[in-house]
Design a protein that fits this description.
about 600 residues, eleven-stranded mixed sheet, Asp-Met_ligase, four-stranded parallel sheet, ATP-grasp domain-containing protein, alpha+beta, globular
């Protein structure tokens, strides 16, 4: 089945991949959120979320009327009574409070994923300037990264253009959320809207986003929908022409692995192997092998048979990377510069894994040659083909995903600290959070959170941030790149919405039902949404389960989805997760 096999082919090329974010579990307290300053030892005052019994009313202020969802106040399927979900706060409210002088600015939110391997559709081409290495880029042979590979393109489009954007739209609040259609056939356009509006119809009407569907990034109707600026999750090349909340290049660099290494944050000691320059000639002026390549509209590629200056450049730069890997003793972690979807990280713990990695990277169709082939005069200054080789954190005793919102003044608003869920390849598939532990986890991580917020804010970023932190039993057990002795090691910095961000905003929804824990995770199931909801009818009607995002491939008779579940305690939660997953497959993000 196309949908089932393609979405799950993202394991590590060799060794284990690191995490990205797709599910979370939380246990917590009251009903709603106010943001108030509280003292901190790190910096003057710090903003935190304090839950109360009153909910603020949010309302959109459009300069022009938007095409709203048009959903009824109480969603339902025939014979099923679904409860309305009230979030503790929304991204819209957090942005307004983060920058009061810009509170009237109407933000359009773009939450789609991107890739650099293949066009998602004719209106959403692959990124060629701001490179991202997702699983298909690294693992799919170059000959399959083509516009003719309709199955691959469809599977990626379902994930990047519907599933991930729905998940973030769920917590967006009453702002325009820009969604891109899978394709422009009338049936698909209608199906795209139906899936998104059905997912969001369970929200309180005052917190539902205004969905704006359009063909692709170059065709966002800014004036028609009264949008002043765009804020975004991932850099898409097509966003360059719009007024933005922050620079695309700065955003890309902040999220890069070299950016984290140079941040001054306590990340494991590492070496950055940079690439010098870019291929010095065009394919037509290079050699016969390059001129014979007829795939000009697909992924740019410098073949191994190239005898001209392009091939010599790839040979020289590849040798630097391969030499660095070869000389590095195990264990170590190798990361591509910029990744998305849990790809591009190899955990190498044995000599056999190291040999396999070297074999993959020296392959004529491997990830290194594909990546070097994408370096251009327009992007080489960002060092997109660099790799980072870092020490592995020794004997970690905790693995946390910390989420917070950075205000304009650099102060963070703590949202939650979750515990990560990964698959057999160490790719992120979810997180778990216990609400009753959040006070203690806030105290544990407040200094690190403040340092991270200060770092991203000085680069002009305002918005959600996630960091992955490994905790060791003693300080200095793993050497940091900045020389600091610490128990807490930042192994990933995501200056964007994370997959677990919905969970802290659902605290009131779950705790008022006596549910101290919650989790969100990705699944693939046979059939559609209605069959799934009916199968779990009691849990849906009790408010302990709901859909965070859903897309059904009607041609294949299967769906990909994110679901959220809640339980009274961790044991009950794990049992619930296992029961749901028994009839489904995990979706790696």
């Amino acid at each position: 089945m196309t949908l089932l096999c393609l979405l799950n082919r993202g394991g590590a090329a060799r060794g284990l991949r690191s995490t990205s974010h797709a599910s979370s579990t939380i246990c917590c307290g009251r009903h709603n959120v106010n943001i108030n300053p509280t003292p901190t030892a790190a910096r003057g005052s710090q903003l935190r979320l304090n839950f109360t019994n009153t909910y603020p009313r949010y309302c959109a202020t459009a300069s022009q009327p938007l095409h709203t969802m048009g959903s009824v106040d109480k969603p339902s399927l025939a014979g099923i009574d679904l409860p309305i979900i009230k979030l503790d706060t929304t991204l819209t409210e957090l942005f307004r409070r983060a920058s009061p002088q810009h509170a009237s600015t109407r933000l359009g939110m773009v939450f789609c994923g991107v890739n650099s391997g293949v066009d998602l559709n004719p209106d959403f081409p692959r990124n060629t300037k701001y490179l991202y290495q997702d699983s298909p880029f690294n693992t799919v042979p170059r000959k399959e990264l083509t516009r003719k590979n309709h199955d691959l393109r469809k599977s990626l489009a379902m994930k990047y253009l519907s599933l991930i954007p729905q998940r973030d739209a769920f917590i967006a609040g009453p702002s325009p959320v820009i969604m891109f259609n899978m394709n422009q056939s009338p049936a698909t356009v209608a199906h795209d809207r139906e899936e998104a509006t059905t997912t969001l119809s369970v929200l309180d009407p005052s917190q539902r986003p205004n969905l704006v569907f359009c063909p692709g990034p170059s065709k966002i109707p800014m004036k028609e929908y009264g949008i002043d600026k765009i804020t975004y999750k991932i850099v898409a090349d097509g966003l360059e022409s719009y007024p933005l909340t922050h620079s695309l290049e700065t955003h890309w660099i902040l999220n890069s692995k070299a950016g984290l290494a140079r941040s001054g944050l306590p990340t494991p000691r590492c070496d950055i192997i940079s690439v010098k320059g870019y291929p010095p000639a065009s394919p037509r002026s290079c050699c016969d092998a390059c001129r014979a390549d007829k795939r000009s509209n697909d992924l740019t590629f410098i073949p191994e048979s190239c005898s001209g200056p392009r091939g010599q450049w790839v040979k020289t730069e590849s040798a630097k990377v391969l030499s660095a890997i070869s000389s590095r003793p195990v264990p170590f972690v190798l990361k591509n510069q910029q990744v998305f979807g849990g790809a591009g990280t190899w955990l190498v713990t044995t000599q056999e894994q190291k040999d396999d990695l070297l074999s993959d990277f020296s392959s004529p169709d491997g990830p290194l040659r594909k990546l070097l082939s994408q370096v251009t005069p327009e992007n080489h200054h960002m060092d997109p083909a660099a790799v980072v080789i870092s020490d592995m954190v020794s004997n970690p005793i905790g693995d946390y995903g910390l989420t917070f919102f950075v205000n304009e003044d650099g102060e963070p608003v703590f949202l939650a600290a979750s515990e990560q869920m990964t698959d057999g390849n160490n790719a992120w598939v979810g997180s778990t959070i216990v609400y009753s532990r959040q006070e203690a986890l806030y105290e544990r991580f407040q200094v690190l959170m403040s340092r991270t917020a200060e770092f991203v804010a000085k680069h002009g970023y305002v918005g959600p941030v996630g960091i992955d932190v490994l905790e060791t039993g003693t300080e200095g057990e793993t050497e940091t790149h900045c020389g600091e002795r610490t128990k807490f090691h930042v192994v990933d910095l995501n200056v964007r919405t994370s997959g677990s961000l919905a969970l802290p905003l659902l605290k009131g929804h779950f705790t008022q039902r006596g549910l101290d824990c919650a989790s969100s995770f990705g699944i693939t199931v046979k059939g559609g949404r209605e069959e799934f909801v009916r199968k779990w009818r009691r849990e849906f009607e009790e408010g302990r389960m709901f859909v965070l995002s859903w897309y059904e491939d009607r041609e294949e008779g299967a769906s990909i989805a994110d679901v959220v579940v809640g339980a009274e305690n961790e044991e009950g939660l794990q049992g619930m997760i296992e029961r749901v997953k028994e009839g489904s497959e995990e979706v790696v993000f």
